[in-house]
C-alpha cells in the first residue's frame, strides 16, 4: 500500500513539474508592457516641450519597448536529400603445413596441419528524405527590448480556441526599424534569429501524439 501511495505521489510531482514547465514557456511569449513614464512637468506654453517626443518627419512605427508591430508570416521551405553507400571486402589466406626433411607431414597420404582462410563481406545501403512546410498569416507582437545598435527584440503569441483544443503561433526574433513598413508591418523573412512555432493543445492534440511507451519502442536506444 505504501509503495502504491509513493508511486502516486511521484507521478503527481512529475505532472506538476511538467505543468510548471509548460506554463513557464507560455509566459516567455507574453506581451511586454512599456515602462511607466515619469510625471511630465506642466508646460510653459511653447510648441516644443521637454520630456515630450514629437516625431514630425517619421512614420509612427514601433520603436520603443512595449510598442506593437505586425509580422506577416510568409514562411515556405523545402529540402530533399538522398544517399547511397556500397562497400565490398574480400580476404583470403593460405597457411601451408610444416615440412620435415623437406617433406610435408601426412597421415594416410593426406597432408595435415595446414589451413586456409577465406572471408567476404558486402554492404549496400541507401536513404532518401524529403521535407517541406509552409506557414502564412499575421501575428502582432510587442517590442521586448531595444538593443544598443537600434535593433528591436520582438516576441509574441496568438492563441485560437477551436472546439476541444487550442492552437497557437509563437514568434521571436530581431528586426531593424528601417525594415518596418509605414503601416507598421514587417515580413517574417526580415526577422533575424527567428524562432517560429506552431502547435496545438487539448484533446485532439493528445489523440494525435504517441504515448511515452510507444516513443520508447521507437527510440534508437532500443537494442532490437
Can you offer a commentary on this structure?
The chain is an alpha+beta fold. The protein has a domain of 48 residues. 17% of the residues lie in helices and 46% in strands. It contains 3 helices and 10 strands. Strands 9-1-6-7-8-10 form a 6-stranded mixed sheet. A hairpin with a 5-residue loop joins strand 6 and strand 7. The two termini are 36 Å apart.
SSE string, helix = H, strand = E? HEEEEEEEEEEHH
Span between N and C termini?
36 Å
Approximate strand percentage: over 45%
Helical amount = 10-25%
Instruction: Give me the number of helical elements.
Output: 3
Q: Rg to the nearest angstrom?
A: 35 Å
Sheet of most strands: 6 strands, mixed
Number of strands: 10
User: Which residues sit in consecutive blocks of at least 5 with pLDDT less than 50?
Assistant: 19-25
Structural class: alpha+beta
Can you list the strand order of the major beta sheet?
9-1-6-7-8-10
Mean pLDDT: 77
The geometry reads as elongated
Amino acid at each position: 500500500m505504501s509503495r502504491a501511495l509513493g508511486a502516486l505521489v511521484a507521478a503527481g510531482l512529475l505532472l506538476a513539474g511538467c505543468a510548471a514547465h509548460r506554463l513557464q514557456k507560455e509566459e516567455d511569449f507574453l506581451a511586454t508592457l512599456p515602462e511607466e513614464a515619469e510625471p511630465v512637468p506642466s508646460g510653459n506654453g511653447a510648441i516644443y516641450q521637454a520630456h515630450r517626443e514629437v516625431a514630425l518627419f517619421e512614420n509612427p512605427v514601433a520603436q520603443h519597448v512595449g510598442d506593437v508591430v505586425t509580422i506577416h508570416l510568409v514562411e515556405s521551405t523545402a529540402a530533399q536529400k538522398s544517399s547511397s553507400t556500397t562497400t565490398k571486402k574480400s580476404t583470403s589466406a593460405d597457411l601451408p603445413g610444416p615440412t620435415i626433411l623437406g617433406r610435408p607431414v601426412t597421415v594416410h597420404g593426406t597432408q595435415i596441419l595446414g589451413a586456409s582462410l577465406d572471408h567476404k563481406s558486402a554492404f549496400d545501403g541507401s536513404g532518401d528524405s524529403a521535407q517541406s512546410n509552409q506557414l502564412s498569416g499575421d501575428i502582432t507582437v510587442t517590442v521586448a527590448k531595444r538593443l544598443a545598435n537600434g535593433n528591436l527584440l520582438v516576441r509574441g503569441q496568438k492563441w485560437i480556441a477551436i472546439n476541444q483544443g487550442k492552437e497557437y503561433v509563437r514568434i521571436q526574433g530581431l528586426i531593424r526599424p528601417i525594415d518596418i513598413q509605414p503601416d507598421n508591418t514587417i515580413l517574417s523573412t526580415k526577422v533575424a534569429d527567428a524562432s517560429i512555432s506552431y502547435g496545438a493543445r487539448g484533446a485532439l492534440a493528445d489523440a494525435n501524439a504517441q504515448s511515452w511507451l510507444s516513443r520508447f519502442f521507437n527510440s534508437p536506444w532500443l537494442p532490437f
